[in-house]
């Protein structure tokens, strides 16, 4: 979910119908055995470690064409297909399940069985759609012949490397196969083990014959505020199936198994994001992109030079100061957790869809980790933290380019400005991201972000990011009411 990168516990009975139609449990044994024999045996892979390691999350994600500045007065769309984070694995999963690219014209055979509003429904109430279940299945669902369930232990370096390798080699690429998320082991530790994480929610599928990890899905807990209601939910992310198995409908059985495991813990609601339109979004946002290294972005076809533009003019247009401008700006430290928790609590209460962070979650998600999460605070002359800003790092592999192998992207996370303007605070984040060799800075048009996007020369992406709630209904909201950023 990312998130985003995010997914949801799916109703078991609805999934049963989906699995019957997909014939996962029967009728494919011979084909599956032949396919299993063609899969490679597991081989050790060392993920990038530490500092400048390449990372990318979450949580599936589809890919977005970007926009860069095209002339000195305006920004022109690019013709690139670079990946965007929060268009997560859920999109790919439902596309694999045969959902139409024109959802408005679709009879939703799967989603019509789920506790979600239908497209076109008007929702005026806030609350659960179905009551929590008491009869949660206790035994795992059946996998196709030749496969076994496994619960991954991410404290084991070898198992962490297996997840890293599966994602790195099989996760979502853009439709032109030019960019692919490049997760690191360190990023996975950060994203998949927040406070309250459950090992049983790191769910894998292995080949019986050789133990190869060929499928993975994960869940993390979250407290979400929807208008004036707080609800325990789950975000499901990193849904990934080996490329050779995608036609075999392994994704649905992964989803229903993680659903069962989550339901066993008494959680029946979820929030998730997807680039595709499904029944039924509560909000729709869009990514904006600010070039930090325009020359490289043009070289890898992430962006392009406009008709009346030259590279020299583009570089001049996107030039930033060498050093940050705000007095008292420094990296967040452990001692800043209480102040940052208060800033976030006050700020996020303004929005209709937002997380409710606890202090230990603030420490986990915001204390800087090299190459993963970067958080700055502003401390005044009285040693009071008045502002904070953060971004996380999500590189992508650049395919088919002899000069560049990686695009390093920064994603705006949560920013709270009280003593300085939001625009000035984000501008300093652009400067710091550029100083740490990021190539592009991405931000959604949610919260108060629209107040700075134009002035700071962000270009609008060409795809939407839809926000969903599962088994929870509420009135639709504008992007300005959304205060939730999924990894």
Q: What is this structure, in a nutshell?
A:
This protein is of the alpha+beta class and about 475 residues long. Helix content is about 25%, strand content about 25%.
Mean pLDDT: 81
Residue fraction in strands: 25-35%
Biggest sheet layout:
8 strands, mixed
Strand numbers in spatial order across the main sheet:
12-22-13-21-20-17-16-14
Secondary structure tally: strands: 23
Describe this entry's structure for a reader.
The protein is an alpha+beta fold and 487 residues long. α1 (12-22) packs antiparallel against α6 (250-264) and α9 crosses α10 (359-366). The chain starts with a strand and ends in a 14-residue tail after the last strand. β16 (373-379) and β17 (385-393) form a beta hairpin. Mean pLDDT is 81; it is low at 1-38 and 41-100. Strands 12-22-13-21-20-17-16-14 form an 8-stranded mixed beta sheet. It is built from 11 helices and 23 strands. Helices cover 23% and strands 27% of the residues. It has helices spanning 12-22, 29-38, 89-96, 157-170, 185-192, 250-264, 294-299, 311-317, 337-348, 359-366, 422-435; strands at residues 2-5, 61-63, 67-69, 75-77, 83-88, 127-128, 147-151, 179-181, 202-207, 213-226, 229-241, 270-274, 283-291, 329-331, 353-355, 373-379, 385-393, 396-398, 406-407, 409-416, 440-444, 459-470, 472-473.
